[in-house]
Amino acid sequence: MTNSMNMVTPQTLSAEAIQRYRSEGFLHIPRVLDPAEVREFLDDARAQLDREQKASWDDGHGNVMDWVVEPEAKSAAMRRLALHPGITGIAEKLAGRPLRMFKSELLRKRTVGAAPTPLHIDAPAFPIAGTDVTLTVWVALVDVPVERGCMTFIPGSHHGQADAGMSFEPRPQLRWWPRVTVPLRAGDCTVHSARLAHAAGTNETDVARISLATVYMDAEATYDPAPAGAESNYQDEVVDIAPGQPMDTARYPRVGSSA
User: Fold this and answer.
1) Percent of the chain with pLDDT over 90
2) What is the pLDDT of residues 191-224, one digit of tens each?
3) Which residues pair with 192 in a beta bridge?
4) What residues contact 128, with CB distance under 8 A and at least 6 apart?
5) Its pTM surpasses 0.85
6) Which residues is 211 bridged to in the sheet?
7) pLDDT confidence band for 84 (50 / 70 / 90)
8) H or E stretch at 216
9) Superfamily of the domain at 17-230
10) Which of 127, 130, 190, 210 could form a disulfide with 235 if both were Cys (CB 3.0 to 4.6 A apart)?
């Protein structure tokens, strides 16, 4: 097992890292899981991907990825990962306030032939009023070098954008901004703002890219069933909450120190 001194925790996360996340809109955090955790979660992830029904993102060039919806509801292992106190504690420190889990997806980018993930912004898809601190933690369960389709971010692209001005197609000028590509080792994660433009490459290897992406939102967030400019969203998954009401049900548990 990895020495705990080498792992990043909420207690060891530096003020400089927090400031960098808030400035650039993303952060690479190495070693949030130890090797034993990676093995457990990867075994469970592969079993779910084999047996569960999957959603799929296909574009005109092929399959971008497929995923299991709400994997945390289908196994105790995935729930432990989605609510992992080390990961959620880091997320709260980066957000600067208490959080709830909005959703989790077990993602797979298939082997050779998978299409790239196009440049996009997450926020318009979320039926949440105010996405100022909404963020995604993307945990790699296998090594994800550039050749396996790791994530690419446009630093600073989350600044100065109101919800009404967002869409899945990024602002045209962003295509000319510098990008940062972040390869990960299994057990690393990235955190990115829901307002940040990001993409991922193709998988050119013979090993599927497997990760868990979990979205965390302000603990005081309210339900907005029709975010301005949304082309698609998750509102059909929200039940028993009226528009404008807090999303404080068991479906959206408090995390980290606020749990």
Assistant:
1) 70
2) 999 999 999 999 999 999 999 999 999 999 999 8
3) 26, 136
4) 102, 134, 217, 218, 221, 222, 223, 224, 227, 247
5) yes
6) 107, 140
7) very high
8) strand 209-218
9) q2cbj1_9rhob like domain (2.60.120.620)
10) 127
Range with lowest mean pLDDT among 84-98, 106-120, 137-151, 199-213: 106-120
Residue bearing tokens 């193709």 = 202
DSSP assigned state of 22: H
Handedness of CA 241, 244, 245, 246 (dihedral sign): positive
Is residue 239 scored above 70 in pLDDT? yes
Half-sphere exposure of 219 (CA within 13 A, CB side): 15
Q: Compute the C-alpha angle 50/56/57, nearest 5°.
A: 145
User: CA 156, 95, 226, 213 torsion: positive or negative?
Assistant: positive
In what order do the strands lie in the sheet containing 99-109? 26-29, 189-193, 135-140, 209-218, 99-109, 62-69, 55-59
Query: DSSP assignment, residue 3?
Result: -
**Are residues 129 and 221 in contact, defined by beta-carbon separation less than 8 angstroms?**
yes
Question: Which residue do the tokens 């059909």 mark?
Answer: 236
The three-class DSSP label of residue 48 is: helix
Distance CA 136, CA 205 (A): 25
- Starting at the earlier edge strand, list the strands of the sheet with 151-153: 117-120, 198-200, 151-153, 180-182
